[in-house]
Design a protein that fits this description.
The chain has about 350 residues and is α/β, with parallel strands linked by helices. Helices cover about 25% and strands about 25% of the residues. Strand 14, helix 9 and strand 15 form a beta-alpha-beta unit.
Length: about 350
């Protein structure tokens, strides 16, 4: 009797819980048989895997907004893939979809794992992981819903050269704001102004951040889009204008939350300036996903919204990809291409 060929799936699993930023050693690549497809399930051949700063919180942080990835589990991530087999009436083979398919080559999932069909055929499907996905939707909704921008506002954005920050700056410009980006190193600062169109940009790695902020924001900061927390935010908050809005979107500068770090108090700044600080997590707003993507896609087509992608090829690039993100190695939205 001949042996039946069994389809195999390679996947990246979490093998140890990191203290701080996950390193390559916290992950392993294994190979397992693809399970039979159950009633109502779908088989996805992943094409692009996302690498996002928020992944750190999904595996390590205390006080996070989602359950941690279990030890031995496939690393959670958004991915874009093609449905190769379907036992669900609402989905068919050949559709390109965005969903929670994880760091693996083949995903066997239920329909709840799918966020949406990738429905911009004239644009690269990989953009559904970045400017037409979690990063762009976060930028658009967080800025408009929490930041409430008005023409003439001064908008300051941390990690301004990143996938979220660069979109925030461009959307803010379209809405009439004066935009000031904060980024690390002269190359990223130059890119913020020359490529993403910020009115000014500041290198937080150089000396004199406080003085640079005063010079760039002589009338104070009306909106601070905070992706970092930490020392950068400590420098921005004293510059808040009256009735300022602070969008808390990320804490990339804090490498661990256990033990909880102490630092400058924000309450007096908020009280004296009658300012507001509010957290934003895009997962609360999936009801506005499709309309947001349609808006962002039109801006991309019109050349109003620029983006930058960094492609890493092969599943082998996954284990160190998150650590590299926090080392500042990426040049734009980091994507793993399979």
């Amino acid at each position: 009797m001949g042996t039946q060929n069994v389809e195999m799936n390679r996947r990246v699993t979490l093998v140890s819980r990191p203290a701080g930023i996950a390193q390559a050693a916290n992950f392993a690549i294994d190979r397992i048989a693809v399970p039979p497809l159950g009633e109502g399930e779908l088989r996805i051949a992943n094409r692009f895997l996302s690498v996002d700063p928020a992944m750190r919180g999904w595996i390590a942080d205390a006080g996070n907004y989602s359950d941690p990835v279990p030890i031995g589990g496939v690393m959670r991530s958004l991915a874009v893939g093609e449905i190769t087999e379907s036992r669900h009436p609402d989905w068919r083979e050949g559709q390109i979809v965005l969903g929670w398919f994880g760091w693996q080559e083949i995903a066997t999932v239920g329909p709840d794992a799918i966020v949406c069909e990738v429905s911009q055929p004239d644009l690269s499907p990989s953009l559904a992981l970045g400017v037409l996905g979690i990063n762009g939707v976060t930028a658009l909704l967080a800025l408009t819903m929490v930041g409430e921008p008005k023409a003439g506002d001064t908008l300051v954005v941390s990690t301004a050269g990143g996938a979220v920050g660069s979109a925030v700056g461009q959307i803010g410009s379209m809405l009439g704001c004066r935009t000031v980006g904060i980024a690390g190193g002269p190359t990223k600062v130059h890119r913020c102004v020359e490529y993403f169109g910020f009115d000014a940009a500041i290198d937080y790695k150089a000396e004199g951040l406080d003085e640079a902020l005063v010079k760039a924001c002589p009338d104070g900061v009306d909106i601070y889009f905070d992706n970092t927390s930490g020392a950068v935010s400590d420098a921005v908050l004293p510059q808040l204008a009256m009735h300022a809005r602070v969008v808390n979107c990320g804490t990339a500068a804090i490498d661990r939350w256990d033990p909880w770090p102490s630092g400058p108090r924000v309450e007096r700044h908020l009280l004296v300036k009658r300012a507001r600080m509010q957290g934003f997590v895009v997962f609360d707003h999936f009801d506005r996903w499709e309309e947001s993507v349609a808006t962002l896609a039109q801006w991309v087509r019109e050349g109003k919204l620029r983006y930058s992608e960094e492609m890493l090829d092969g599943l082998e690039m996954c284990p160190d990809a998150l650590a590299g993100l926090y080392r500042g190695e990426n040049a734009g939205k980091r994507v793993i291409r399979l």
